[in-house]
Amino acid sequence: MTIRELVSSKFFKFLLVGLMNSVFGYGCFASFLYLGLHYSSALLLATILGVLFNFKSTGSLVFNSNNDRLIFRFIIGYVLVYSVNLGGIALFSLFGVAPYVSGLILVPPMAVLSFLINNRFVFNHA
After folding, report:
1. pLDDT digits over 8-38, tens only?
2. Which tens digit of pLDDT belongs to each residue from 81-106?
3. pTM (2 decimals)?
4. What is the mean pLDDT of the chain?
5. Of all helices (H) and strands (E), which one includes residue 61?
6. How many CB atoms lie within 10 A of CB 29?
7. Which of 7, 43, 46, 55 has a CA that sits 20 to 30 A from residue 25's CA?
8. For the chain, how many structural domains are there in total?
9. How far apart are CA 6 and CA 109, in angstroms?
10. What is the largest distance, in Å, between two alpha-carbon atoms of the chain?
């Protein structure tokens, strides 16, 4: 694969857009933790805001889709990502890892899971 092919690939675009989305989502999560919310509530609120923020950016910039009807599939995908992420944070907390740290550790695997869901379940029908 050439550099040009790599840069134009869906996964590379997803990573760039995902970086922006992750900064937004983790910023919300960390802010809600700072305000004293339990990590499950902080993650839920950050995920809800992330869905609203990410749907348009991911759909249009990565998958070339402006189909607003796909929001329902997108939400289902985020419910799955939220559930796996919440389980990961809970597992890390059993070992004494702070939610700030575990949330950050889980960003890369959640990005891969999110890409797979969006590529195969949400936007492949666009």
Report:
1. 788 888 888 988 888 898 999 999 999 999 9
2. 999 999 999 999 999 999 999 999 99
3. 0.78
4. 90
5. none
6. 27
7. 7
8. 1
9. 20
10. 47
Would you put residue 67 in left (φ > 0), alpha (ψ -120 to 50) or beta? beta
The beta-carbon contacts of 84-87 under 8 Å, at least 24 apart in sequence, are 84/110, 84/113, 85/43, 85/47, 85/110, 86/40, 86/43
Asked if pLDDT for residue 126 goes beyond 60, the answer is no
Q: Domain containing 69: what range?
A: 3-125
Residue with tokens 């070992």: 95
Distances (CA, A) of 56 to 3, 73, 75: 27, 13, 12
Residue 79's identity, in one-letter code, is V
d(CA 67, CA 78) in angstroms, rounded, equals: 17
Contacts of 107 (CB under 8 A, 6+ apart): 22, 26
